[in-house]
Amino acid sequence: MAKELKNLTKRSENYSQWYNELVVKADLAEQSDVRGCMVIKPYGYAIWEKMQHVLDNMFKETGVQNAYFPLLIPKSFLSKEAEHVEGFAKECAVVTHYRLKTNETHDGVVVDPAAKLEEELIIRPTSETIIWNTYKNWIHSYRDLPVLCNQWCNVMRWEMRTRLFLRTSEFLWQEGHTAHATREEAEDRAKQMLKVYAEFAEKYMAMPVIQGVKSETERFAGALDTYTIEAMMQDGKALQSGTSHFLGQNFGKAFDVQFVNEQNELEYAWATSWGVSTRLMGALIMTHSDDNGLVLPPALAPTQVVLIPIYKTPEQLSEVTARLDAIAAELKAMGISVKVDANDQKRPGFKFAEYELRGVPVRLVMGARDMENGTIELMRRDTLEKETVSVDGIAAEVKRILDDMQTSIFEKARKYRDAHIYECDDYEEFKSRIKDGGFFLCHWDGTAETEARIKEETQATIRCVPYAFEQTPGVDMVSGKPSVARVLIARAY
Predict the structure, then answer these.
(1) Could you give the CA distance from residue 492 to residue 463 in angstroms, rounded to a whole number?
(2) Which residues, in sequence order, are CB contacts of 16 under 8 Å at separation 6+?
(3) What angle do CA 215, 221, 226 make, to 5 degrees?
(4) Tell me: domain 421-490, CATH 3.30.110.30, correct?
(5) What distances in angstroms separate CA 314 from CA 309, 328, 371, 450, 459, one per listed residue?
């Protein structure tokens, strides 16, 4: 394990390779034999489960309920909302038959040509169509509204160039779909869910984000407005980390979801959808981790504290482990997740390297002499600082360090991001500096032509019109025309 750590590519040498190696070596995920798909391993899935648990509770606090809708969507459903189908058509996987049969040589199987479906089925790339087709059976009166549903599921978007967690053909996510009686209520819900995502990212992931609204070109297919949170990775690139969409009445009209309003008139329902995915796993890795491995925020670490005994004899192992078990019980009583690793098949140095690579926030080490002295060695993963402390009050000290670490890694990421946000009004300067990464606040004339030129010439995109920055009059750096807004531009994953 120590050798593997030594061979981990440094971020400064090749950030992309560092990321790819770390995902595999930290035992988070691996490539599947199914092209473009991944296997999320138990340790990686444990982190995702913690994310799910927190987000699920946050959704439910706003009145959202979980449901489940079919994986397969009739092709005709996708045809009902033109912009939506155009946005996803090139990414759809299509089911055409429902049966296999043994081949002529009886050594394999082939598709049975007699089992062709009358209508092809699409593996869901997203579920607006199947859900709104269902909502027309649920919604008849304003009294039936709002409908606030979320589902945790997988989706399929055929990708040619994939990267674990960041972009795979199949991925896990949640998708919320709500129906409302008024435009104002739907818009408020879409903005509310964006704030939920931002709170989760900053409070639990310790990842600072910028909230804003997407340009028309970057909107979700079928949306009137798309709201986004954008995070900066350590290489200066942006990662879209959550989106919430105001869909207007587009899907209400496409699927004839009408209700009788309070004036006894028929009206189409107003819609939102919103989602985050296992892409957040990639965000977590790239925001905090270092050349030694993962750095996990304590709030999302599957194991927050690992306790390791140092011993020379089986008797010492038994005695020290018993003392560590008692300390572990104290920590568990405070709601801290712990592991006592008394595995005598692995040397302590191997364990140190393994847990450092996996990003366990706090490591406690005790030997026979420590036990005699009433002390224990404590190391925190974010700074790699070690100190010998008294076992008296160790649970409270560990809790303090975990809280401090959660705050510290957020502040470190925030300071890095803020130091790499630049105002820029000169296009030549922008083209020169964007190669090194960063977020650029630039005036934009509001046209798709200017947006397309920036993307073609620099591989950077308008991430959003940010809420947090004051808007002042100006001139577009590309066209020289009056600006409609100062936008956030970056290269992105």
Answers:
(1) 8
(2) none
(3) 40
(4) yes
(5) 11, 20, 15, 71, 60
Amino acid (one-letter) located at 351 = K
Beta strands in 17-81 (DSSP E): 29-31, 38-40, 65-66, 72-74
**Could you tell me the CA-to-CA distances from 476 to 68, 154, 354, 424 in Å, in that order?**
46, 41, 51, 10
CATH architecture of 27-74+128-288: 2-Layer Sandwich (3.30)
DSSP 308-362: EE--SSHHHHHHHHHHHHHHHHHHHHTT--EEE---TTS-HHHHHHHHHHHT-SE
The CATH fold assigned to 305-401 is: Rossmann fold (3.40.50)
Q: Domain spans of the chain?
A: 27-74+128-288, 305-401, 421-490
CB 444 within 8 A of CB 462: yes
Could you tell me where the beta strands, DSSP code E, fall in 14-107? 29-31, 38-40, 65-66, 72-74, 93-97, 100-102
Which strands sit side by side in the sheet containing 305-309, from one edge to the other?
338-340, 305-309, 362-366, 375-380, 386-390
Q: What are the structure tokens assigned to 345, written together? A: 């098949």
Place of tokens 């297919």: 221
- Partnered with residue 267 across adjacent β-strands are 259
- 14 to each of 18, 129, 219, 235, 418, how far by Cα in Å? 6, 41, 32, 10, 23
Asked if the bond preceding 42 is cis, omega within 30° of 0, the reply is no
Who's near 8: CB < 8 A, 6+ residues apart?
18, 21, 22, 25, 291, 292, 293, 357
Instruction: Report which of 322, 353, 493 is spatially closest to residue 4, judged by C-alpha positions.
Output: 353
Instruction: Measure the CA–CA gap between 206 and 136, rounded to whole angstroms.
Output: 40
Residues 358 and 336: their CA atoms lie apart, in Å, by 17
Please write the tens of the pLDDT for every residue from 90-123: 999 999 999 999 999 999 999 999 999 999 999 9
pLDDT in tens, 302-328: 999 999 999 999 999 999 999 999 999
Q: Does the predicted model carry a pTM greater than 0.90? A: yes
